[in-house]
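Please decode residue identities from the backbone states below.
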């Protein structure tokens, strides 16, 4: 019979549970989230559970990755629903710490600063975001010490930064990427999609359509810069309600300017709706 899923709120308790798992030789797969789980998270949990003996899911809306005028306080939260989804996906432990548990010292003096790849794409309009992500991910990896950690490709910039973080700080974990999960009309799943009104929800397919348009121009042989310019025009034609934040391409996973010798590029888009900022991307092979 399968063991009961445990919800653990303190670092100390989680460490004791996971120590026992490790003593038994169990491999630990970890999925960090901010909750309000959807099928994109479910794909991460399934991968984590399939490739490892134990699945740990963290649910923590991390204040340090939100800017002062961002949606930290209104970020959707629903532990009961999340618990059901986690149970259905055979998670063994939910780590559900409070802000005080994660950032216990009011005047903590150490955080992680990322020096590359944070002033482009989402980092441009969210200048402190990736330092907040890097700090909390480092803390979570230190607390859980998983064998593998799972990130969705939808946040491709986050994934690239976390890979770099793990390399640079020599954190002993394998970073695994999981494909974007989409609705039937190709809108990428996101916890923020619930904030779209009915009209915006229809409009929001423009993210994927714009990416696909640029990709087809690249397939036809257009230069990246030209294809992106046409892509921006295309977006402005098809979206009536969204404000284009960016449509850009960078080398992936290096997040440097694309050069002719690059083999893979990240084509990424961000769009602001009234109450939700949505992102999406495609990996382009050259
Ligand atoms: O992708 C997210 O949900 C968050 O950025 C993460 C990785 C859980 C860190 O808070």
């Amino acid at each position: 019979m399968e063991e009961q899923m445990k919800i653990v709120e303190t670092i100390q308790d989680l460490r004791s549970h996971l120590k026992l798992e490790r003593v038994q030789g169990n491999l630990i797969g970890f999925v960090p989230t901010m909750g309000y789980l959807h099928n994109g998270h479910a794909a991460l949990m399934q991968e984590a559970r399939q490739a490892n003996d134990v699945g740990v899911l963290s649910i923590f809306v991390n204040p340090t990755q939100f800017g002062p005028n961002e949606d930290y306080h209104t970020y959707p939260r629903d532990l009961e629903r999340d618990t059901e989804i986690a149970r259905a996906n055979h998670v063994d432990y939910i780590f559900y710490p409070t802000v005080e548990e994660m950032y216990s010292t009011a005047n903590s003096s150490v955080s992680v600063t990322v020096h590359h790849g944070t002033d482009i794409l989402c980092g441009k309009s969210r200048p402190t975001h990736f330092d907040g992500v890097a700090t909390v991910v480092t803390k979570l990896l230190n607390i859980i010490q998983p064998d593998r950690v799972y990130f969705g490709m939808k946040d491709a910039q986050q994934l690239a930064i976390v890979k770099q973080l793990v390399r640079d700080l020599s954190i002993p974990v394998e970073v695994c990427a999981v494909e974007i999960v989409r609705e039937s009309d190709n809108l990428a799943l996101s916890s923020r999609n619930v904030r779209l009104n009915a009209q915006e929800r229809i409009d929001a397919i423009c993210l994927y359509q714009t990416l696909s348009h640029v990709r087809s121009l690249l397939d036809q042989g257009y230069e990246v810069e030209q294809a992106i310019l046409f892509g921006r025009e295309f977006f402005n034609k098809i979206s009536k309600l969204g404000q284009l934040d960016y449509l850009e391409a960078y080398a992936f996973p290096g997040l440097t300017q694309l050069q002719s010798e690059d083999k893979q590029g990240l084509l990424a888009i961000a769009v602001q709706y009234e109450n939700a900022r949505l992102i999406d991307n495609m990996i382009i092979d050259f």
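Observation: DSSP finds ten helices and nine strands in the chain.
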